[in-house]
Amino acid sequence: MAGQVATGSRSGLRSALPLLLPAYLWLTVAIFLPLSAMVFFSFMTELPLAGKVWAFTLDNYTTFFSQGLYWRLLLASLRLGLEVTLWCVVIGYPAAYVLAKVLKGRSREAIFLLVILPFWSNGLVRIFSWAMVLREGGILDTALNAVLPFKINIDLMYSYPAVIIGLVHSYVPYMVLTCYLTLQAIDDSLIEAGRSLGASRLQMLKRVIIPLSMPGLVAGAALIFVPVVGSFMEPRILGGRTGTFYGTVIEDQFVAVFNWPLGAALSFILLAVVLVILALASPVLKRAA
Amino acid sequence: MATTRILEWCGLLYIWLLLAFLYLPVIIMALMSFNVSPFYQLPFEWTTEWYVSLWQNDQLISATWNSIEIAIITTIICTVLGSAASLALYRYEFRGKKVLQALLFPPIAIPWLITGTAMLIFFFGVGIGRGLFAILLGHVALALPYVIVVVSARLQTFAPELEEAARSLGANQWQVTSRVTLPWIMPGVIAGGLFAFAVSFDQFVVSYFLSTPGQTTLPVEIYAAIRKGFTPEINAVSTIIIVVSMALMLLTARFFKFGGEK
């Protein structure tokens, strides 16, 4: 203790270790070792539990590459991720722009808080709430039939659009948040200067504002795309039988079929895809930071 | 000038449409928890019977207690371990610091489906198995990086000269930390703790893979109930959850803003 005080506050690893060790030990036991164990298990024929005979194998991976089913589902999940991300850009970016550049003062603060508030509220419950709206005889159906002179049947529940709507609803606050942060950092005088030099609004948007807010767009896209590709609860609740995606197949391996080694291999392939995407996004993100 | 005003009005209108999109389903879900019809039929008739029957549902009540207990223990462990780690990362220079900081991001960035199934495999392999203890292990690991990030952000506003001054006035290391540094970072620690509580209380995916029929949390119970069929009872419990977590987030925002101010 006395030595530490004498050498001041920058005495290195030896002093830092007791403070760091508990947190990083916990992360190792509950995150890093499990991820490594998953890789290990994915090369096994059986779980090495209760005296079961097991051997190393590549079968779990050949299953993925030889059976069109898993490929198709991974592609379907990637497409779902892409569509949800695009909708989030289309819906979230203009909102972020209005928040950052049109609203001022207290009303900006209040609305910003309102937009990101659902962000931390229970995702499962919010997905469930869409079931109330989308089902036949639900609110959307009833409301439209009350307004329109003719009878229509709205039953979006258990369909692909329902899954998209639910996921966009869940993830659009991310896009608003990240774009807002980069848009707010753009100096207003820059925009005024461009306008006074004769640039039209559209030109300003294309040449100045969108390029400058690119890091926010990329960060938001990565934050949305990655969890959507691995989603399983949302397609299950809103998609019903049409809601079979890569994530739901992984879920099945662990809770229904109990083929854990195959589940581990499928999870690991997803992890690889996720890491590639994050690696592709990181140069843009580094530039922002 | 006129076009600017029109564009501003369109922008405002757009924001309100977005807020409607974000909140209307949740509001409708909450309203339906006060409606008499078990099949969500209109016209609306007020009742609180679904909340009463919720109160008699032992399975949900016990899952709720599990959720609250796990969230509280997670909060305590995360604030202590997280604050200690943030302090170390702020105060000391050593090799590999950048790596340690980078290691905080995998738990946040990797989809919970992958982390959850990996935990299930590993905990089974080493004999921890499934259950409340496994869920707690997982929740702390998921929330810890958030606490470290939030407390570190608060520490950035701290002036190291204050520690030097206290030391030169004869305070020992423990006194410097407890009387000078900790009071300063307290808003960050509280915000981090609230984050940890929210992460744990709302966590579904990881709990889902680590729970067993008797040892489960509220979101897992709700998911099981939803898959059996929709009932207004689910609406009632969902309404309670959403109110609790939004109140928590508002509280967090309050403290986090204190963290941002001088």
Write the layout of secondary structure elements.
The complex is a heterodimer of chains A (289) and B (262).
Chain A: H1 2-7, H2 13-41, H3 59-66, H4 68-102, H5 105-116, H6 123-134, H7 139-147, H8 160-184, H9 188-196, H10 201-212, H11 214-229, H12 233-239, H13 246-255, H14 260-288
Helix pairs in contact in A: 3-4, 3-14, 4-8, 4-11, 6-8, 6-12, 8-11, 8-12, 11-14, 13-14
Chain B: H1 2-32, H2 49-55, H3 58-91, H4 97-102, H5 105-109, H6 112-125, H7 132-155, H8 160-168, H9 173-202, H10 205-210, H11 218-228, H12 232-260
Helix pairs in contact in B: 1-12, 2-12, 3-7, 3-9, 3-11, 7-9, 8-9, 9-12
Domain ABC transmembrane type-1 (chain B): 64-252
Pfam families (chain B): BPD_transp_1 (PF00528)
GO biological process, one term (chain B): transmembrane transport
Describe the structure.
The complex is a heterodimer of chains A (289) and B (262). With 289 residues, chain A is mostly helical. Chain A has one domain: MetI-like (MetI-like fold, Orthogonal Bundle), CATH 1.10.3720. Chain A is built from 14 helices and no strands. The longest helix of chain A has 35 residues, at 68-102. The model of chain A is unreliable at 1-10 (pLDDT under 50). Mean pLDDT of chain B is 88; it is low at 258-262. In chain B, 47% of the residues are buried. Chain B is built from 12 helices and no strands. In chain B, 79% of the residues lie in helices and 0% in strands. Chain B has one domain (59-260): MetI-like (MetI-like fold), CATH 1.10.3720.10. Chain B has 262 residues and is mainly alpha-helical. Chain B is globular and about 75 Å long. Chain A: Keywords: Cell membrane, Membrane, Transmembrane, Transmembrane helix, Transport. Chain A: It is found in: Cell membrane. Chain A: Belongs to the binding-protein-dependent transport system permease family. CysTW subfamily.
